[in-house]
Amino acid sequence: MTVEPGPPLRIDLNADLGEGFGVWDLGDDAGLLEVVTSANVACGFHAGDPAIMRRVCGSAVERRVAIGAQVGYRDLAGFGRRAIDIVPAELTDEVIYQIGALDGFARVAGDRVRYVKPHGALYHAAVASPGSAGAIVEAVRRYDPALPVVTLAGGELARLALEAGLAVVPEAFGDRAYTADGRLLSRRVPGAVLHDPREIAARVVRMVTAGTVSAVDGTTVPVTVESVCVHGDTPGALAIARAVRAALEAASVALAAFAAGP
Q1: Range of the domain at 36
Q2: Is residue 134 part of a domain?
Q3: Which residues, including other chains, have CB under 8 Å from residue 46's CB and lie 6 or more apart?
């Protein structure tokens, strides 16, 4: 009896890009665009400005990297990592505003926004809070219901997006520590951010090929992943991204954007 091989494993590799502001640079956008398959581009609320958005979108199109709107709280001073108490209707408007701003620059570059992903404190709020998650879902539904939403599997955003008929791309984080319940360890806790490229690469290969990750307490946690994130502002992000990509390719995992451009 001959057993037919299954389809080859395929994964998207994304990074947060365009997170400078004015004369301040953060991260190696040009370098990361040579490695990743999707770019989560800051839309001006937690970071980024019109010149940066235009530059990153143009470079992403040149390198055939998918452009995603990384929407966040209006918090430049706190880099979008501080929780903000905002009513859902206002949050919906602010998310629409951000998607539209980036989509304009993506279209000028010859493509369009291909997906939406929350940033920082808004990401965590959307995983845990039906109000925040519902506001993001409503924004995407009204702007373009064909846009996928990138988020942790099993959270409120994933649940409500699926209920609304939106596509959901489950995400895992190579450079972040996990709790036993499958959530990300708070950045306020020592060890929440990982820095060793080899360790991170090995974790990512395990996530993608085995569907598990070791939590901070040593337990094995199941993960559902179609896209892996490497934070662009993490020190050594380019070396990490290169190590992750090389390890995945060595494990016969194909890298490709889940939302391909033109």
Answers
A1: 10-255
A2: yes
A3: 19, 70, 72, 73, 74, 75, 76, 78, 79, 80, 81, 119, 120
Q: Indicate the number of domains in the chain.
A: 1
At residue 13, what is the residue type?
Answer: L
Distance CA 165, CA 151 (A): 15
Question: What is the distance between the alpha carbons of residues 240 and 215, in angstroms, rounded to a whole number?
Answer: 20
pLDDT digits (tens, 9 = 90+) for 157-195: 999 999 999 999 999 999 999 999 899 998 889 889 999
Contact predicate 174/229, CB 8 Å: yes
Q: How far from chain centre, in Å, is Cα 251?
A: 22
* Residue 2 located in a structural domain: no
CATH number at 251 reads 3.20.20.370
pTM for this structure?
0.93
State whether the Cα torsion 210-7-171-161 is positive or negative.
negative
In tens, the pLDDT along 137-152 reads 999 999 999 999 999 9
